[in-house]
Amino acid sequence: GSSPGTIAADARLREHAGFDGIWTAETNHDPFLPLMLAAEHTDRVQLGTAIAVAFARSPMSMAYVAHDLQVHSRGRFILGLGSQVRAHVHHRFSMPWSHPARRMREYIQALRAIWTAWNAGERLHFRGEFYSHTLMTPFFCPEPSPWGPPRVYLAAVGEQMTQVAGEVGDGLLPHPFTSVQYLRERTLPALEKGLTASGRTRTNIDISLNVLVVSGRTEEQMTAAAHAVREQIAFYASTPTYRAVLDLHGWGDLGEELSRRARIGLSDAGQRMGELIDDTMLRTFAVVAEPDQVGGEILR
Length: 300
Description:
Blueprint (H helix, E strand, L loop, with lengths): L6 H11 L3 E4 L8 H8 L5 E4 L2 E2 L5 H14 L4 E6 L3 H7 L7 H21 L5 E2 L4 E2 L17 E6 L2 H10 L2 E4 L5 H18 L8 E2 L5 E2 L4 H19 L5 H6 L3 H13 L4 H6 L4 H7 L1 E2 L2 H9 L1
Parallel strand pairs: 1-2, 2-4, 3-4, 4-7, 7-8, 8-9, 10-11
Antiparallel strand pairs: 5-6
Helix pairs in contact: 1-2, 3-5, 5-6, 6-7
C-alpha cells in the first residue's frame, strides 16, 4: 500500500526488519513504479506484484516492464499476475475480456516466448488464439537479462484459473478470500491437476498466500482490526466471481444479499455490509490472534 514517495524508506525498513519479500498491488497506484525504487534501495528482499492486472496490458508491454525490473533488481523480481474481473477490465481499463483462464494461459506463454527471444536470441514467432507476437527487430530488443526471466506467479480463485497456474506458472497466489476448507477441497486439487497436465509436481511451484489477519495488543485494537477485516470480507463476498468460496460453506444466500447491498451505492453501504459478517465467518476467512500468536496460526 506504499506510495512511490515513501516506498524507498519503507523498503529499507522492511529489509532491515528481516522480511524476505515486498509485494505491491494494483489498486490505487501503479504496481511497478514503486518496485523500481524498492530495488534501488534494497539488496536482499524479493520484490513482486500481488497483483498486476494482466489483461490491462498486452503481453509485450508487460514483458518490457517485467524484464527491466528483473534486471534492475538483479534477479529479485516476481511478476505476480491476476485477471481482475470482467467489469473492471471492460469498464475501468477498456480492454477486451473473454475466456479468462484460456486467455491467461496464452498470456503467460506469450510472455515466455518474448523473454526467450530477448535472452536467447531466438526468433519471435508466437501465434495464439488471443495474442500474436511476430515482430522483434534488434532496435527494440533489450539486452539479455543476466538473471534470466522473472518468475511468474498467478493469482486464482476458481478451479480453472488455479489449474492454469499449475500448468504454466512458477507460483500460485491464492486469493485472500479463501478458507482452509476451500484450499484443501478446491484450490490444491485444481493445482495438482494443472501440474500433472504439464508433467510437474508441487516441488516445481511456489504457493504464496496473502492471509487476512485480525490482531492487536489491546481490546480496542482487536475490535478495530476485526471491523476492518469484516469490511474486507464483505467486499470480497459481494463479488459474484468469488461466490464459489461462499457456496462451499453454505453461505451463498449471504453472498446474494451482500451483492444487492453493494449495488445500492458506496456511501455507507460498506459499513452495513460488514455488519453481516459474524464471528464464525470472520474466523473462517481470517486469522484472529494476538500478535505473538499470529505466525503460528498462519502456519497452522
